[in-house]
Amino acid sequence: MKVGICSLGCKVNIYESEFVTNLLKDNNYEIVDFEDKADIYIINTCSVTNESDKKSRKMINRARNNNNNAIIVVMGCYSQVNADEIEADIVIGNKDKSKIVEIIENYIKERKKKKIIYDLTNVTFEKMEISKFENHTRAFVKIEDGCNAFCSYCIIPYVRGRVRSKAFDDVVNEVTSLVEKGYKEIVLTGIHTGRYGVDINTSLEKLLYRLVEIPNIYRIRLSSIEINEITPGIKKLLKDNKVMAKHLHIPIQSGSDKILKLMNRRYTKSEFLSMVDELKEIDDISLTTDLIIGFPNEENMEFEETISTLKEIGFTKIHTFPYSKRKGTVAASMQGQVDSQVKKKRVHTILDLSNNYEHDFYVSKIGKIYDGVVEIHSNGTILVHTSNFIPVIIYDKVENNSIVNVKIEKVDGLNVYGRVV
């Protein structure tokens, strides 16, 4: 049977969709493009914003339009919180994705619609291991699921449950296996990656110190980490060990103490700035961030304070999102909701700022030589991602997934060009 799979949202979803893909292939299902006619469509949904919900619904409808007789499977975060409103043959939340083959085959036998949704408050980590990533030079490894932070704007703790970690040895074995299969860069990902190990008497720091010792490992990259979870040991590893990518994605969400408190973030502006100062002591490091604009009670004064904070930090790139009211969160019922046009205008201001920072960071690296992994894209573009996550376009004749040294020679807007040396 032919299966089309669509993955929306974060790197955890990409990992889980790849796991499902491998599982189906191992059981003789044929994976086809999601836009093609298939017998089964699987949509791994996202629910981080209202726009994510809309996109999830759109892809469910698209699957039905592609083949009205197909089996429609909807799983993930949108399913977990909105199962009752989803019209599909199989609805799975954020547990039992590893049983996808059994669930589909039971449905084919019985032809009874299923909704499989669990209370995720006290579930264990669902064991998944990936042996290969199709068409990727970088491999993601999910080390953690769930979140205990309960930021006031965020639905994720409700749809992903509490923090739970993959067993230490399972992570080491999975990463070792991927390295042995030729993957050069391993991206560690989770819902709240920095809290890895709190439930199994270990820590992210201990895990990283073990992973960098794996024979022939080239690079480890963290997908995201909170500023107050970067321990002195992690900083030392970033500074001294070549395997660790010199890039951190550290969400700030706001540069105003008033808004940070309303968001229930676990740091103050001064604490964030102090930690950034320490991180900037690491040579060539790149720091990127997430920022929510137009959070309830963000008036002009708080927005200007945020801009001032961003200028003081000088991130390489700022991923900016207008605040989206999420039913069931504390922020949804707050007074002082910001007008949508005001949010839109503020987002554009931050995007301009981000583009300037990104351009200036790239320009500052002209003439420098970096090593990185070659990625040859389907459109023919050849990219080399450096340790500090600069995507360098090259025109040299090189093999996909090879490691090369590139010299940055030119920057045009946000495009960086170089050559192999």
Fraction in helix: 25-40%
Structural class: alpha/beta
Radius of gyration over C-alpha positions, nearest whole angstrom? 22 Å
Number of helices: 12
CATH topology type of the largest domain: Transcription Regulator spoIIAA
Number of strands: 19
**Per CATH, which architecture of the largest domain?**
2-Layer Sandwich
Mean of residue pLDDT values: 96
Can you characterise this structure?
By secondary structure, the chain is α/β, with parallel strands linked by helices. The protein contains twelve helices and 19 strands. The strands form five sheets. The chain has a six-stranded parallel β-sheet with strand order 2-1-3-4-5-6, with helices on both faces. A five-stranded mixed β-barrel has the order 15-16-17-19-18. The mean pLDDT is 96. Helices cover 33% and strands 23% of the residues. It is globular. The protein starts with a strand and ends with a strand.
Layout of secondary structure:
Blueprint: E1 2-7, H1 11-26, E2 30-32, E3 40-45, H2 50-66, E4 71-76, H3 77-82, E5 90-92, H4 100-110, E6 114-116, E7 138-142, E8 144-145, H5 156-160, E9 164-165, H6 168-180, E10 185-189, H7 204-211, E11 219-222, H8 232-240, E12 247-249, H9 257-263, H10 269-279, E13 286-293, H11 300-313, E14 317-322, H12 340-363, E15 369-376, E16 382-386, E17 391-394, E18 403-412, E19 415-420
Parallel strand pairs: 1-2, 1-3, 3-4, 4-5, 5-6, 7-10, 10-11, 12-13, 13-14, 17-19
Antiparallel strand pairs: 8-9, 15-16, 15-18, 16-17, 18-19
